[in-house]
Design a protein that fits this description.
Number of helices: 3
Structural class: alpha+beta
Shape: globular
Number of strands: 17
Distance between the termini: 101 Å
Number of domains: 2
Helix content: 10-25%
């Protein structure tokens, strides 16, 4: 009676032949491993909300009212300037008013003037409302955000003559806007290698912001030399079904804030789709000097 060779398919007495075992090792088992890893990755992606930072506002001293100016650009070229005014108009509210505009050759190619106003709770550092006005050469866009504990209502109007505001609701508990996210992160201990994960709605979409404290270092900007806290920022866009998506234009950013009682925003270097852009503190004046 003819028997099968040692490298042929089949079984002997219900047991796998060596050839069958070899096929399993080379093909089936790796496929099963990859399928398992894909399942785990998918499960983690679906449960990203459980990884968010849940702590309340920290006890770091609040920022004093101030005026600050920044310049923006790339490769050493200044493309725009901006001014911000931080105040505490009442015991229960912080407010930020900002303006920005392109300048010089950049303005001749791309005219832009912007106004930004935001209010946040002084107790919880949660956002109350935000308004952003963008003026371009041929159009004007007004975005207004109203926040509650359950989410945000966005009203957006693009003025090209007669226009109606478009309203959108995004439900997500404990949302931040750009201003309140900065206040919240500033209030935290910011120990080296700590990681904070928050959801922010700056204007038109929600993003998962992952902020990692890289360490401490010295940095010099136009406003002076500072001991600084170095942060890494990554963003993931949150889709319609709360799935995480890559940000199409933003890759990552490095942020420096002063390592002192103020924790001022000193400098930002962001890697975006056109290269590396920056923002740098030019001057700062406190309304209530120590």
């Amino acid at each position: 009676m003819k028997t099968n060779g040692p490298f042929e398919r089949g079984t002997i007495g219900g047991r796998l032949r060596p050839a069958k075992i070899s096929i399993l090792i080379r093909h089936r088992i790796p496929q099963a491993i990859f399928a398992f890893l894909a399942f785990c990755s998918s499960a983690l992606a679906e449960n990203w909300e459980t990884t968010l930072s849940r702590g309340p506002a920290g006890n770091f001293p609040e920022l004093r009212p101030l005026h600050a100016s920044y310049r923006f650009g790339w490769s050493g070229l200044t493309a725009a300037t901006g001014d911000v005014h931080f105040t505490k108009p009442s015991e229960d509210k912080f407010q930020l008013d900002g303006t920005g505009r392109t300048i010089g050759l950049v303005r001749a190619l791309w005219k832009f003037d912007g106004n930004y106003q935001a209010a946040a709770s002084a107790e919880t550092l949660r956002p109350i409302e935000t308004q952003q006005i963008e003026n371009y050469r041929s159009k004007k866009i007004v975005t207004h955000l109203t926040f509650t504990n359950n989410g945000v209502t966005r009203s957006r109007m693009e003025d090209k003559g007669a226009a109606e505001a478009k309203t959108r609701q995004f439900n997500f508990p404990n949302l931040f806007d750009l201003f309140s996210a900065m206040l919240y992160l500033r209030s935290q201990p910011l120990k080296d290698h700590s990681v904070y994960r928050v959801v922010a709605y700056p204007a038109t979409n929600a993003y998962l912001a992952i902020v990692t404290v890289i360490g401490r270092e010295k940095i010099s900007v136009h406003a002076g030399s500072y001991s600084a806290i170095k942060l890494d920022l990554q963003l993931k866009r949150i889709g319609k079904h709360r799935e995480l998506e890559p940000h199409r234009k933003f890759r990552r950013a490095t942020i420096w804030v002063s390592d002192d009682a103020e924790r001022l925003l000193l400098c930002v270097e962001a890697q975006i789709f056109v290269g590396t852009v920056f923002a740098e503190l030019q001057s700062v004046r406190f309304d209530n000097p120590k």
